[in-house]
Predict the structure.
Amino acid sequence: MTKPVRVRFAPSPTGHLHLGNARTALFNWLFARHEEGTFILRVEDTDTARSTDESERMILDDLKWLGLDWDEGPGVGGEFGPYRQSERAGIYQEHAERLLAEGSAFTCYCSDERLEENRKRARDEGTVPQYDGTCRDMPDSERRARELDGVKPTIRLRAPDADIVVEDMIRGRVEFGKEMLGDFIILRSDGRPTYNFAVVVDDALMGITHVIRAEDHLPNTMRQQLLYSRLGYESPLFAHVSLIVAQDRSKLSKRRGATSLQELRREGFLPGAVTNYLALLGWSHPEAKEILSREELVAAFDLKRVSASAAAFDDNKLEWVNGHHLRESPLSVVVAAAKPFVASAGLDPDDARFPAMVDLVREGLDRLSNLPGEIAPFYDREFDLEPEANEWITLHESRQLFAGLADSFAAVQGKLDAAEFKSVLKSQGNALSLKGKALFMPARVALTGRTHGPALGNVAELLGRERVISRCRAAAGDAGKQ
């Protein structure tokens, strides 16, 4: 295909944006950016009972958070709008009437009850439910009589008596037997288009060149390819990516990893990490790189490297990727993303030391929701000792160590730095014959209440001389009470 690439992401605003849909959006966006094409956002909101403005707002907000900007669509405009299906009813009606006039479609007056009886009979017989053709060749006089009786018909496309073949960019040749098709509805009795009909009309009129979506849409492609032909439109190229499954290869569910972007945002995953991880679900970098920036993803993305095999969602791998991005992203980016988490925990993100706190602890972080607990000891408020910390605070040498550290730091004025702290700590250790864990662990517990954390000298430097003295004196008092 030599046409400029035009792809679309077309969510239904009936809930949050989940990982499967987010990956579909990402693959379309990466393909468009790699090919210097156009990425279109279209809202498929014909399901009026379930579509909401709030859901649309959340989906658009999630896409913006991921950095998936669209070239045409809601809020941006474009020459092929409107970009909400609810605003395109007249366009669908016009195309349906054209198919009726050409004899490619017919009006159907079958009741829902009768159609359900047919479906039940097919299920009982173990066959594919299919319209039985009752209204297919109905005389015009009978059709007029039905309409005079006030019966609102649906419009069905006449299915061919032939198998259908779909050539897929990822899966190759896919064949569908004619028994799977049947005369299917394109316009409901209330005038609303069915999914397959609206999608074809929209994709054709918007000049979509490639349709990239999940493999569970393959049966839809069978019908859509027929519609392109009947309407006289050129079919786009299709690429059906694998589904995302749980680690045990079962269907992804809430219990097995299914989640929305909103949940990932609440847990403190960076957008760059999420796009990085989603790209690896079914696609691989030519050099097998796993930590990739957005620019690297765009440069390397190729549909030929998208696998037809199901991709397993792994929470641990996502955390690992996020940890890399927390460590390697510019500090200003991480600090900005971290502020809401710290504020919600009652800590002050405007503390002048806050960027340094984040920088000091981010080496061990895998998500920002854990950040408040890691930096809490740097703030001027009481902290509880970890259970395993008690054994170090109660050592009989502890009171002497804490008192000696407090006196030594109080004897010198000015800013406390890591080098001075380590020097004083070593000197006190020599005086008390303490070294290794016996020296460093009680000091860490006195300053932070923890038995683990960043380099202790850096912790002390960030706390500052007055806090170090105060905490050492308090710890000496606590040790003396044991």
In short: The longest strand covers residues 164-168. Residues 213 and 240 are 5 Å apart (CA to CA). Residues 89-241 form a domain with the Rossmann fold fold (CATH 3.40.50.620).
